[in-house]
Amino acid sequence: MATENCNFPSTLDMNELPIVRIKLNTPPLKCIVKAILPDLLDNFENASAEVVQCPDLTQPPFNLASEGLNGDENVFDIGDITNLIPSIKREKLYNIKDLKRITGSDPLVIIGACAGPYPFFGVDSEASILSLYRLINLCVENVKMTGDRVKNGTHVHMMKSDDAAAECCHKSLPDDEMRFSMMANFFTSNGFKGEVLKIVCEIRKGPLSFSTCIREALEKHFGDEIIAIGGVILIENGKVKVHVIKPSLAKIPLQSEKELGKLVNFIELSPPSVGVGCIVSHDPGLNLRLQHFHLYTDRNQGGHYHIDTEPNTIKYTGYFGVSKQFTKIDQSNFML
């Protein structure tokens, strides 16, 4: 895409940024099943959790870049919300390829939620009025790197205006566009098939979203021990609430995350929809985003997952790998 007369910041080298690595005491999958199932049944009319062989996730409806979620599993938290508050830090531009050197994994599969690569859309460092909307976009990361080869199935969603009825635009990234910005929550692995957690929940009777219910159950059972999982969710029945960021965020100074909440446009996604992301049970003081999923559909719609809006018909099916390591990159010096 042409980016003439644009002044973009250089991509940061994540290997040169502050990195905190935490080796995790990963419990057996059957122990996680036992830990979360009672809480799932408290929040959903029907719920199951079991250990299964991962299905081929390259097939519809998932369409991921690799078959499975196994091998050298890691969860990454990169940047954070302070890169948007009090104003957008456009210099926070990262490259997915750096994760290959950090993990040493080959192949390396990356799935999860992040802010997209705004320079790809031709937004200059001053963010002109006509191109403001391109600066604020939500990315559904879906990448596989094998040697020097890249398979990029990443989706990007953005709003054209602050109008609630404005079009939600969709773009697919080419194989050579590996940047993202501001913040990210990624699950990485070799993408091998193997045993994973399968969680199915239907008919929500409690107040918690699918991801919140899982996270709170993990925290309740494991306490200060960090359990980090990542994977893919299929919403088979029922609509879900997602948000896409309003373009005016690029120009309005913010004082808190609460104010940021006023600059999102909520929309409903009809089924089926698919989400990728991570859940971390406990924050040891690193200013983490403990759950983060971005959704996409085959109708070119998507956004940041909040909760279902049709609890009487909702059905979630999730497949998750459990991380052996948690990595925080580019932690801010202050917390909101």
Automatic annotation (TrEMBL):
Coiled coil: none annotated. Residues 35-329 form the DUF1907 domain. It comes from the Eukaryota. GO terms for cellular component: nucleus. Keywords: Hydrolase, Metal-binding, Nucleus, Zinc. InterPro entries: C11orf54_DUF1907 (IPR015021). One of its GO terms (molecular function) is hydrolase activity, acting on ester bonds. Pfam families: DUF1907 (PF08925). It is found in: Nucleus. SMART domains: DUF1907 (SM01168). Monomer. PANTHER family: ESTER HYDROLASE C11ORF54, PTD012 PROTEIN. This is DUF1907 domain-containing protein.
